[in-house]
Prior knowledge:
Blueprint: E1 4-9, H1 13-25, E2 29-35, H2 61-79, H3 84-87, E3 89-98, E4 114-118, H4 121-124, E5 132-141, H5 143-156, E6 160-163, E7 178-181, H6 187-190, E8 197-207, E9 214-217, E10 223-226, E11 231-234, E12 238-239, H7 248-261, E13 269-293, E14 296-306, H8 310-333
Parallel strand pairs: 1-2, 1-7, 2-6, 3-9, 7-14
Antiparallel strand pairs: 3-5, 4-5, 8-11, 8-12, 8-13, 9-10, 10-11, 13-14
Amino acid sequence: xxxxxxxxxxxxxxxxxxxxxxxxxxxxxxxxxxxxxxxxxxxxxxxxxxxxxxxxxxxxxxxxxxxxxxxxxxxxxxxxxxxxxxxxxxxxxxxxxxxxxxxxxxxxxxxxxxxxxxxxxxxxxxxxxxxxxxxxxxxxxxxxxxxxxxxxxxxxxxxxxxxxxxxxxxxxxxxxxxxxxxxxxxxxxxxxxxxxxxxxxxxxxxxxxxxxxxxxxxxxxxxxxxxxxxxxxxxxxxxxxxxxxxxxxxxxxxxxxxxxxxxxxxxxxxxxxxxxxxxxxxxxxxxxxxxxxxxxxxxxxxxxxxxxxxxxxxxxxxxxxxxxxxxxxxxxxxxxxxxxx
Length: 341
């Protein structure tokens, strides 16, 4: 077999980063990213893009730490380069604050972010309702800029971007030899996965250029994330809610909660309300599957279910998905007397 034809389904941060990793690390492949939505219309475009990891019940902590470290290192390299502005990646410092002392005062990712320390009493005076806090510097992705940057990397390596809705993985056979499923919530239908469901997130984008530090309540429900052109205020976590229309009452609650943490936001000008549906399951699905139908076989690598942690983990898990794709490529290139591939 000469060129192995690979289809990547999904053009959010998981799909595009996987496509870039494959193009860099698996020789002799052609890559086509297929999705019904590209930036600025993906779930990733709504994400605030802060690198603060999330825990998945079914994914081991050591795996999460590896993915987070690899993602942090990848984005740090970009942030320190001339590409930083185009890629929308920059460092940001701030505080994560708690109303009661957390069980883990030092989280598993503390030695990956920069300058992690316990907040001083003087710093905590700014937040009278909170008794404990962590100060650190992390990275922020302006997700729409980063997605455009990833698309450019795919095209520069010879890959194609194809706007098309995939209803069934078998649609892609025989045009492709391997399918990488990064379809997020689309995997309910495409992979028959009943464990994945939406968790609705609504955010506000406001003009408040004087806000320079991020503030995140330890619950993760209220946060203030300053970016290059606006400040993102959040948020919500509404399980099983498919509604993509902004809710004015929820926006008022978000604004009120954020003003309680940073009163100067009362002077902020609201630019936009945005809604995204996080693809949540008990753990990230990262595995190979060999589909068989009527004597034909279709190797699939599933890579989805990152929930609200997609930006924080994307490059590390994309590297792992690429290793699985490489194994599939090897298998295709090993002659088998019964194979019809």
